[in-house]
Structures are given as structure tokens and as C-alpha cells.
Predict the structure.
Amino acid sequence: MLHWIQLITAGLAVIGVMYYLLCLWSAFAFLMARRRQRSQISEFHPPVSILKPVRGTDPDAYESFRSHCLQDYPEYEIIFGVGDPNDAAVPLIERLMREFPQRKIRLLVCTQVRGMNRKVSNLLQMLPQACCEYLIVNDGDIRVGEDYLQRVMAPFADKKVGMVTCLYHGIAGETFGSRLEALGISTDFSAGVLTARQLEGGLHFALGSTMAFSREALAAIGGFVPMVDYLADDYELGSRIASSGFRVVLADVNVATHVPAYSFREFFIHQLRWARSTRHSRPWGYTGLLFTFGLPWALLTLGLARGVRWTLYLLAWSLIARLMMAIATGVGVLRDSQVWRDLVLIPLRDVIAVIIWGTSFLGHKVNWRGSYFVLEDGKLRPAN
């Protein structure tokens, strides 16, 4: 029995190495596509409304807000939406208005609760205030470069494009949990996005770091209303727009987010919520992650075989392929210099990822901003 278990774990490790190489190929394919895209100068600069639903403040929140006011772009407006007039973000937004009087910045207090997802509820109340044909929704903790709007809006010159989204990397805090979170975003999550793009001939979902879309595409899926009870609103929005016949494009620009100073427990809870959300959004794809944990399977095989030579070779190849994948995606694509510092944490981070993956199948409860909910087919309902 032990012999057969060793063969199974070794087989899973080999499949995992193949996945790492696939991620490596996908990263290089994206880099080549980005180079070609950046060599083409787009003159398509339509007016755009940036909708930013916010709740509370994140690390360096003001600098993140401020980065949206420094855009090298002819015409745009920024609409902030809060659910409470006493929200901690309100003074920062008012300060932003004073610093940039030349920008069209508005603050909207969204008093209605239209569904379980308060972000989407706020967007429903913000949308009628937006004046532009093109809209961008991104999270409150996103920081962007000066060419962000140019790069995100350029693909819309193709009328078949209904949505543009962006990769992102996390700026880690000083805690261990924060570093693990940022490392996972840059070297695992983003690699999975690029691989899905390569295998599926494009994206069929969006990332909350940036969701840019036309009103035509939004109208084609019935607006924001169908997403008002979903936890993974970004996935749902992108998936529905793709299903309605529009293309979803990955922009040739990256953005950044400040990862909170998570304790290890907070990191685990956040990752578990993310995992259960993904499991409900893409159940078969999420189950298939079993075949992507090459390094943990190689470590398990080494332990079961008590260090037999061939298992050492398997572990070495798994580690090399995993590190190459991490560097290609984290450093090559995302320009995340933190990856060099935290490469040594990848084996530990990947073992924890397997534990989270397994734990995610043991329930449907998630912790979201301090409240507990139960997921039912991706929708939220309050936990009893």
C-alpha cells in the first residue's frame, strides 16, 4: 500500500512540474504579447468614469487614492462611494478634493442596502451619477501608475472588447502573514491567471484590481443587479460579459495593492475565504488545483520513501521549476522585487496552500470584514 501511495504522490508531483512549466510558458507568451501591444500607440482616449466603492481605510490609502488623480489622460472623473457618512475614508477623500480642485472628484454616500454584497450595492447607487460611456471599477486599496488609464482604455479601440482587467502585486507589510499573502499573489495566483488566459484563448473572468467595461457590455448582462448577492462579484462580472459575446482582455499594465499586516491567523482566514469563493465560482477548475501542487507532492514523496535517491531528484526538479515559474511571473511580469527576498518562503507557502485547498472543501462558511456568511452557489447569506 505504501508503495502505491508513493507512486501516486510521485505522479502528482510530475504533473505539478508540468504545470509549472506551463505557467512559465504562459508568462513568456504574455510578455511577448505585452511587448507587441506597447509598441502600438493607441489614439483611443474616450472619457471614463472611475467608480471606487470604499469602506474604511487600507495601508497608505491616501497615496492609493491620489495616484488616480495623477493620470496622463485627457478626460475622466472619479466617484467615491461609501456606505456611512462617518466612514474613515471620508476625510481622506475630502482632502483629495482640496488637493486636486481641477479634477472631477465626487463623494456619494450610499445609504441603501440593495443586497448582501455591499460593494455591488454601492455601485448600483453610484452608476446613475457617472456621466461617461466607459466605466472603471477598482478596489479602494489599488495604487496605479500615471499611464494606467491610457493602458487600460487602449484595448477598447476594438469594439469586440467589452472588458479590460489587470494583474496586480501586493506590497507586503512587516508581518509574516502579509509576506505570505503577497508572495502568493505574485508567484501563484497571477501565474494561474496567465495560464487560464493561454489555455482558454483569453480571459473569461475579471480581477477586482481593475474592471473596465463599456455601458453596452454592462447593459448586455443586466447591469450590476444580478451580482448583488455574489461574493466573487469580479469573477461574475467578467464571466457574464465574456458569455454575452464580448472579449475580456488583460491589460499590459500592472497595479499594486498594500497587503494588510495580517497575523498568520488572519492570513489563513483571508485565504480560506478566497479559496471557498473560487471553489463556488469555478468548481471544476478549483478541484483541478490538486494537480498543480508539484512541490508539496514532491516533498511528501520524499518523506514517504525516506529519502530514496530518485525522490531527491524529483524534489530538485520540482523546486527548480517552481522557482523559475515564480521568478518569471513575479519578477518578469509583475516587476515585484519582493519576490527575490521571499523566494525562500515558497516551499512553506505552497504547503500551506495545499492545507487551505483541502480545508476549503470542509464547509461553506466565510468571514468577510468581520461578519460570517454561508456561500450557496456563490451567493452570500448570513450565517446563523
